[in-house]
């Protein structure tokens, strides 16, 4: 019989001659957790915890397999011949107790097999990643007519760790040769040759790094079922990571939750599935775009990556990575490093003619043969007889520029690529690359976009006006620029943050004022027999009062929590969560919502009391300074605060009991995330409207009954309770959804305010999806990004150059070899003043 985990762990610890305290010090696992594990009082054994304990005990492979068998509850398998040794900790410098005779032939395999819900989550994640990146490859037309050849060579020694470290060798062992040469078809094979499972991919802007990461993820998924390597490769755009404020592990978990909402479900250990997958070493992070991080953060990021032992892949432009290596005095530890090579004229000769329609060409004998519009250009490029030829040859060395040239000439049908050899029009390589960038958007908006999937809106010709589309895209590109750093994720819930805090607050005050006024008028027509004029006056006063209350709370939340406070929700409302009890929610969450509700209800109560006083004073013609009016206003403030504050606090706090993680089994896209948040906001409105109505109606009746015993007669009948409760329930729920949910702010700011100001089209979601279908944008999980960083910079510069309130754009310095620069904004490229 196989020993249970606790008994085996205690036996291994005693054999090593260590106390529980010593194991805790070595592993970082608390003594209490070790004691619970050994006494078998913990039924939720976390794979990451057992891995840490195995490292601390310096277990050999056979003992690790025994521990894995105990975890799985099945007999232990015999150690495989030549099994890889366990990882050493790069931070401690410790080596395993015994080193094998030879280095492992592939990345370090998972050390403890994973079963149950975690294994199912890993399989679901693998399916989602495969589906997402296959779709993205098709959208980018990578295989049409065939993938551009992407080749590489090993990077220079200055950017690569020592061979013995990459191969994870012990003291005195001689490193063997590892062949890192290859092309796009052999990328996964090259990666699997690196024993550490850590690789850096370097290349110039537009050299194909992003496409390479997609192909790596898909190829590794194909080999995952049959290989010891069982990690799921997930591509992360690392440019949005701030290592000075967020640990890598927490950032990875957050991105998984954003892009794969079903991973918010709880694992047997209580953590989210996203956290369990990361902690269990079941995710291979493919970190794309290290160069897109703010310059001041790259050294911190490299230091943070060097503090981990986990396999990963990192892509970057060479110069930015080299600068970070110099600043950190070390490259990415244990990592093999490759550098992408330029395309050759032979590559262009194979590719470009097959992207264009065939045209007849006459031979000297008079016979007609099939040719291509690119034949004359390619023939000239082979000679490189002049500056114009050399400039074009230098530009067409990256897949990005070749794809732009294809779009502008092969797919338009009305332009001759021979104009690219016009030395007077394009005197430098930079001018040629800017010409291709400038022509891309007009070219793709001249053609019809692909149809949407079944059930989705068709927008093929809706945004066919290239001028307007380019202006809107330029504004979106400028929206991503900030004074401290440039962002790349174009998220629908952040579009409204193009507005200043003041403008956002004013817009939401107006929106909440309108919905509360409409609720007051609608309910008043049914429940209160008031004259029409007085009812209109009441709604016109109650609406702004409530709007100011919600606006004040929004301003406080916005300034304290920023944009992160209004990100898309990842929960759904269900009675099954309520039956599970409040124990599933932390006390901190409940108290935070209770406090927000109390503040909001207090402000609302004061505002409603003032509005009610003003309405009655105007209707009766009584001066506002009259003692009876002042006394009545103060009493109303007290009553409304005691009613609205506790009611709102308890309702918003107890809403946590109805929230459960989303249980969808598909990856999030911008469209699906918007749709799910719309549905969630609708359910939140229904639940809040009913709960607030009942809490205020019945709570108000009880509060007034208690206050009458202290303050004397108060005018508050059943009709007053129903009227105020219903108005506050409907208006307050609608105002909450509009002001404090991502979907509500999307409606108010991006669907109404910005289109009315001419800053966005009438339907921004359809426009973004249309731009994605045309190839201007790409999808990265739940957000869009521009197809390439250089295109984003070009559109942003063009937009700023067309507005006098922005400083003129300035190009960054050219590359040292005379090739065009990367198009990143220079220091003065932003708002003036």
Strand order of the largest sheet: 2-1-7-3-6-5-4
Major beta sheet, specifics? 7 strands, mixed
What form results from the Cα inertia axes?
Answer: flat
| Total beta strand runs | 13
Number of helices: 29
What is the percent of helical residues? 40-55%
Calculate the terminal CA-CA distance, rounded to whole Å: 76 Å
- Overall SS class: alpha/beta
Can you walk through the features of this model?
With 833 residues, the chain is α/β, with parallel strands linked by helices. It is 53% helix and 7% strand. It is built from 29 helices and 13 strands. The strands form four sheets. The chain has a seven-stranded mixed sheet with strand order 2-1-7-3-6-5-4. A two-stranded antiparallel sheet has the order 8-9. The chain has a two-stranded antiparallel ribbon with strand order 10-11. α26 crosses α27. The radius of gyration is 32 Å and the shape is flat. Mean pLDDT is 79; it is low at 74-113, 450-461, 576-585, 661-666 and 808-833.
Features:
about 850 residues, alpha/beta, 7-stranded mixed beta sheet, two-stranded antiparallel ribbon, 29 helices, 13 strands
List the SSEs and their pairings.
Layout: H1 5-15, H2 20-27, H3 31-38, H4 47-57, H5 61-72, H6 117-139, E1 151-154, H7 163-166, E2 182-183, H8 187-192, E3 198-202, H9 209-224, E4 232-237, H10 248-259, H11 273-279, E5 283-288, H12 295-306, E6 312-316, H13 318-328, E7 336-340, H14 345-351, E8 358-362, E9 368-372, H15 375-383, H16 387-395, H17 399-410, H18 429-446, H19 466-479, H20 501-527, H21 532-561, E10 571-573, H22 575-580, H23 587-620, H24 627-654, E11 659-661, H25 670-711, H26 718-740, H27 742-756, H28 764-774, E12 777-780, E13 783-786, H29 789-801
């Amino acid at each position: 019989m196989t020993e249970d985990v606790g008994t085996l762990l205690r036996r291994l610890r005693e054999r090593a001659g260590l106390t529980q305290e010593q194991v805790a010090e070595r592993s970082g696992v608390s003594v209490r957790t070790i004691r619970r594990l050994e006494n078998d009082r913990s039924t939720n054994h976390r794979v990451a915890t057992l891995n840490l304990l195995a490292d601390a005990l310096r277990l050999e492979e056979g003992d690790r397999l025994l521990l894995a068998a105990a975890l799985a509850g099945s007999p232990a398998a015999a150690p495989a011949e030549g099994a890889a040794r366990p990882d050493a900790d790069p931070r401690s410098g410790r080596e395993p107790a015994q080193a094998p005779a030879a280095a492992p032939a592939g990345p370090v395999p998972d050390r403890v097999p994973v079963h149950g819900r975690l294994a199912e989550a890993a399989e679901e994640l693998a399916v989602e990643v495969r589906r997402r990146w296959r779709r993205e490859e098709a959208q980018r037309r990578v295989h049409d007519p065939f993938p551009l050849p992407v080749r590489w060579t090993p990077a220079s020694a200055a950017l690569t760790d020592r061979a013995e470290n990459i191969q994870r060798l012990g003291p005195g062992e001689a490193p063997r040769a590892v062949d890192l040469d290859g092309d796009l078809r052999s990328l996964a094979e090259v990666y699997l040759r690196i024993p550490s499972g850590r690789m850096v991919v370097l290349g110039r802007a537009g050299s194909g790094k992003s496409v390479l990461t997609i192909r790596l993820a898909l190829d590794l998924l194909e080999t995952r079922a049959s290989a010891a390597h069982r990690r799921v490769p997930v591509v992360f755009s690392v440019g949005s990571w701030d290592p000075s404020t967020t640990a890598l592990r927490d950032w990875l978990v957050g991105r998984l939750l954003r892009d794969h909402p079903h991973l918010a479900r709880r694992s047997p250990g209580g953590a989210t599935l996203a956290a369990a997958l990361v902690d269990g070493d079941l995710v291979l992070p493919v970190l794309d775009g290290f160069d897109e991080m703010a310059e001041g953060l790259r050294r911190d990021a490299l230091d943070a990556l060097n503090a981990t032992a986990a396999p990963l892949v990192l892509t970057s432009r060479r110069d930015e990575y080299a600068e970070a290596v110099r600043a950190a005095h070390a490259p990415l530890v244990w990592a093999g490093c490759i550098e992408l090579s330029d395309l050759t004229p032979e590559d262009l000769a194979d590719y470009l003619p097959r992207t264009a329609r065939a045209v007849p060409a006459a031979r000297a004998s008079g016979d007609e043969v099939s040719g291509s519009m690119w034949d004359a250009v390619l023939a000239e490029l082979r000679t490189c007889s002049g500056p114009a030829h050399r400039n074009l040859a230098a530009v067409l060395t990256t897949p990005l520029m070749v794809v732009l040239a294809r779009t502008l000439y092969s797919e338009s049908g009305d332009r001759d690529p021979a104009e690219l050899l016009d030395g007077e029009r394009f005197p430098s390589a930079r001018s040629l690359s800017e010409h291709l960038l400038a022509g891309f958007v007009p070219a793709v908006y001249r053609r019809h976009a692909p149809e949407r999937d079944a059930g989705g809106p068709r927008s093929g010709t809706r945004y066919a006006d290239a001028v307007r589309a380019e202006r809107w895209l330029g504004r979106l590109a400028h929206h991503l620029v900030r004074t401290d750093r440039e962002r790349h994720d174009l998220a629908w819930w952040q579009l409204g943050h193009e507005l200043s805090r003041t403008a956002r607050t004013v817009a939401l005050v107006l929106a909440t004022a309108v919905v509360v006024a409409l609720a007051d008028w609608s309910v008043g027509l049914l429940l209160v027999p008031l004259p029409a004029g007085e009812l209109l006056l009441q709604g016109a006063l109650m609406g702004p009062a409530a709007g100011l209350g919600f606006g004040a709370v929004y301003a406080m939340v916005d300034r304290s929590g920023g944009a992160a406070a209004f990100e898309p929700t990842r929960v759904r409302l269900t009675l099954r969560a309520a039956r599970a009890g409040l124990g599933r929610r932390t006390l901190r969450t409940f108290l935070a919502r209770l406090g927000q509700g109390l503040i909001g209800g207090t402000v609302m109560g004061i505002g409603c009391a003032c509005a009610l006083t003003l309405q009655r004073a105007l209707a009766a013609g009584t001066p506002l300074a009259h003692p009876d009016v002042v006394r009545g206003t103060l009493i109303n403030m007290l009553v409304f605060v005691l009613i609205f504050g506790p009611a709102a606090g308890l309702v918003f706090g107890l809403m946590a009991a109805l929230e459960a993680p989303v249980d969808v089994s598909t990856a999030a896209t911008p469209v699906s995330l918007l749709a799910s948040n719309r549905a969630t906001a609708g359910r939140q409105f229904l639940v809040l409207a009913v709960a607030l109505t009942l809490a205020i109606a019945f709570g108000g009746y009880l509060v007034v009954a208690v206050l009458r015993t202290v303050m004397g007669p108060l005018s508050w009948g059943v009709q007053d309770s129903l009227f105020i409760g219903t108005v506050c329930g409907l208006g307050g729920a609608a105002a909450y959804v509009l002001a404090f949910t991502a979907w509500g702010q999307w409606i108010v700011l991006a669907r109404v305010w910005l289109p009315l100001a001419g800053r966005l089209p009438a339907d921004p979601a359809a426009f973004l999806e249309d731009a994605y279908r045309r190839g201007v944008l790409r999808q990265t999980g739940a957000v869009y990004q521009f197809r390439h960083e250089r295109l984003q910079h070009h559109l942003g510069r063009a937009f700023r150059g067309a507005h006098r309130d922005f400083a003129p754009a300035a190009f960054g310095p050219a590359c040292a070899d005379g090739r065009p620069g990367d198009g990143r904004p220079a220091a003065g490229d932003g708002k003036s003043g």
